């Protein structure tokens, strides 16, 4: 493992940081060391205050831009934009191949006012979306009023989505929602009707789906049928 230079880390116990990453494999330790070199005290704070199991998928990521992604996580953690719960869910999301979102896209959620700790999926819109300020569209767990919980309670468990051929569980519904964002056509929703945008998509079964997105990119709801 490369050495950790603590000259500019101000009162940080470098030995304690070494202990924090001692259980990682060689690649993980090297990634942690690079993170400290890149982010200084922010990197040290992230490593020292986060469980090894939470950090592991972030440090193990080796795709293009992985080093920059880790620096971005540390910087956001250091300035308070994200907390340990956000970091934990972020690690789980980038480890889950079904999420199909680039790490930077997931981090962009925080810049649009989203809650990374409850984010389930995220996607980059295909070009500018009228009515939406961000290119990042994301789905959170939500509650009874909006988000995935609302979608399931109002438009799936009531058998609306579950009436579709091949749609049997929440994962199927989630996939329909995200495919509508990726492949559907969008239109601006007038401010008088709440603002944002509506995405419409016709499934291979011939069923129509509408996903309503707030002006910041947050998925408010999704339902069968065209937007009216």
UniProtKB/TrEMBL annotation:
Source organism: Haloarcula hispanica
Chain segments carrying region Disordered: 21-70, 96-128
Domain of life: Archaea
Protein name: Uncharacterized protein
Comp. bias intervals (Acidic residues): 96-105
Classification of source organism: Archaea, Methanobacteriati, Methanobacteriota, Stenosarchaea group, Halobacteria
């Amino acid at each position: 493992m490369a050495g950790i230079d603590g000259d500019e880390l101000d009162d940080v116990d470098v030995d304690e940081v070494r202990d924090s990453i001692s259980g990682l494999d060689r690649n993980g330790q090297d990634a942690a060391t690079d993170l400290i070199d890149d982010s200084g005290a922010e990197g040290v704070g992230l490593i020292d205050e986060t469980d090894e199991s939470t950090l592991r998928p972030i440090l193990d990521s080796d795709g293009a831009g992985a080093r920059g992604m880790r620096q971005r996580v540390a910087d956001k953690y250091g300035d308070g934009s994200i907390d340990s719960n956000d970091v934990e869910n972020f690690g789980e999301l980038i480890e889950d191949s079904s999420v199909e979102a680039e790490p930077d896209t997931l981090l962009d959620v925080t810049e649009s006012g989203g809650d990374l700790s409850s984010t389930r999926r995220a996607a980059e819109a295909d070009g500018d979306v009228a009515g939406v300020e961000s290119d990042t569209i994301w789905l959170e767990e939500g509650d009874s009023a909006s988000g995935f919980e609302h979608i399931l309670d109002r438009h799936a468990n009531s058998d609306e989505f579950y009436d579709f051929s091949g749609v049997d569980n929440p994962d199927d519904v989630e996939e329909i929602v995200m495919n509508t964002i990726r492949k559907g056509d969008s239109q601006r929703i007038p401010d008088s009707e709440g603002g944002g945008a509506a995405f419409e998509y016709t499934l291979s079964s011939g069923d129509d789906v509408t996903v309503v997105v707030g002006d910041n990119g947050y998925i408010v709801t999704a339902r069968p049928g065209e937007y009216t």
